[in-house]
Write a structure and sequence with these properties.
By secondary structure, the chain is an alpha+beta fold. The protein has a single domain, classed as Methylpurine-DNA glycosylase (MPG) (3-methyladenine DNA Glycosylase, Chain A, Roll), CATH 3.10.300.10. It is 19% helix and 24% strand. Strands 1, 2, 3, 4, 5, 6, 7, 8 and 9 form a nine-stranded antiparallel sheet that branches. Strand 4 and strand 5 form a beta hairpin. The longest helix has 8 residues.
Length: 226
């Protein structure tokens, strides 16, 4: 455990160490130990403004299907006035979860091939969600590699929104699922790692492209784009 936390706190200028860390093909944690090292996040955590929730999700751990990874990159989508957000189209069967209770999963299908996981924020009735864009794999790497037919560096298993859902077997079956209990959970470290948050424009959108609503763990090797 101590070794893992030393790895978490690698300075940005030690790039060679970050590269070494991203190439280790073994679980950093056992699933049971990782559960003990983290704690459940109560629903009020998600009832806050979307940007606050997005930043707070960095460093949290996403669990599903006996695999887990630490959130290192997210994007905030703000609701009706954010033309890049699905919620700007109003309440539909697809967007219903975004307008509902916070702390739920909004999962959608894109480009006819990828499922994307979003965390619903804001009070019930106010749309807002956070797209989970990248994880650092922590446990269940063998299963993640099998699901993605991947033999490369572990960081590249989950360094994109479609990659991480495939690696953790997250699909639209989890649409609307609570994230504070059950098989799909977001949990906090009992001892939170130390890192800097960097903001930049969101990726892969055509509207409101200038808004600095992409939040990343600065210098992390598992980002979708550096």
């Amino acid at each position: 455990m101590l070794l893992f936390y030393r790895k978490l706190q690698i300075p940005d200028n030690n790039r060679h160490l970050n590269d070494e860390r991203s190439s280790i093909n073994a679980d950093s944690w056992s699933y049971a130990t990782l559960l003990r090292a983290t704690r459940r996040i109560p629903i009020p955590f998600y009832e806050r403004p979307t940007v606050e929730v997005a930043k707070s999700l960095l460093g949290c751990v996403l669990f599903h299907n006996l695999s887990a990874g630490m959130v290192v990159e997210v994007e905030a989508y703000l609701g009706l006035n954010d033309l890049a957000a699905h919620a700007s189209r109003g309440l539909t069967d697809r967007t219903r979860a975004i307008f509902g209770p916070p702390g739920r999963a909004y999962v959608y299908f894109i480009y006819g091939m990828h499922e994307c996981l979003n965390v619903v924020a804001e009070p019930d009735g106010t749309p807002g969600c956070v797209l989970v864009r990248a994880l650092e794999p922590l446990t269940g790497l063998a299963d993640m590699q099998k699901r993605r037919s991947w033999k490369g560096k572990p960081c590249m298993l989950t360094n994109g929104p479609g990659k991480l859902t495939q690696a953790l077997a997250i699909t639209r079956d989890q649409y609307g699922a609570r994230l504070d209990s059950g098989s799909l959970q977001v949990r906090q470290w009992k001892s939170r790692p130390d890192f800097q948050i960097e903001s930049s424009p969101r990726i892969g959108i055509t509207k409101h492209t200038e808004l600095p609503l992409r939040f990343t763990w600065k210098g992390h090797p598992c980002l979708s784009r550096r």
